[in-house]
Write a structure and sequence with these properties.
27% of the residues lie in helices and 37% in strands. By secondary structure, the chain is α+β, with helices and mostly antiparallel strands. The N and C termini lie far apart (46 Å).
């Protein structure tokens, strides 16, 4: 019974097919269907969260504090993070009182994901790598942090944003839908043995 419950859970959240694709990638066959989203503050409303929103604050972490994220039992690469910061990327951290609750990255250079390569304009940004700390999950903090990032980036003259979510990453897609993000494209990317690259646009709303 427990086995079938696990199968049903994986099917519900797309984990079953994701696990198949992950196993294929181990033998050199990468199949990645993903959405390209466009986001903006004008299309979104501030999401409700569990608890008092006034107890949350948004901070930017630089190279002097970025190592703190590595203590939170997450998939974190310090050297890569420092490289991102030195290239001009921003690490936006949502804190509950003095505790880190969630964080994300923003780039102003270009979108470079599988078959998508877009140069970022002066009023744009690429939003990526949303992470909610385990102890804060279930509070609706991902869309809350995203909305707060819109506000901060709007103050910097950025008002159009792009992001990517893999087709089977249901939680990421759902939090973007809460913010009325627009699905621009559904793209199927295939890479065989790290040499042959193929991509198809399955849906386009440009």
């Amino acid at each position: 019974m427990i086995f079938w419950e696990k199968v049903k859970y994986k099917m519900r959240y797309g984990l079953f097919l994701r696990s198949i694709l992950l196993n294929l990638s181990k033998i050199g066959i990468e199949i990645i269907p993903y959405y390209l989203f466009q986001e903006s503050k004008k299309n979104a409303i501030l999401p409700e969260i569990s608890g008092d929103p006034s107890e949350y604050s948004l901070e930017l972490f630089g190279t002097d504090r970025i190592n703190i994220l590595g203590t939170l039992n997450i998939n974190f690469n310090l050297n890569e993070s420092i490289r991102f910061l030195e290239s001009g990327d921003l690490c936006l951290v949502l804190k509950y009182r003095a505790e880190i609750a969630a964080f994300m990255w923003t780039s102003f250079n270009e979108i470079n994901y599988c078959a998508t390569h877009i140069k970022i304009k002066n009023n744009e940004g690429w939003l990526s790598a949303m992470n909610t700390i385990d102890s804060f999950r279930g509070r609706n903090l991902a869309p809350f942090l995203r909305y707060k990032s819109y506000e901060l980036l709007n103050e910097m003259g950025r008002d159009v944003f792009y992001s990517v979510s893999e087709y089977f990453n249901t939680p990421a897609i759902k939090f973007k839908e809460k913010l009325n993000a627009k699905k621009l494209k559904l793209i199927l990317f295939i890479r065989l043995f790290k040499k042959i690259r193929i991509s198809f646009t399955l849906m386009s709303n440009d």
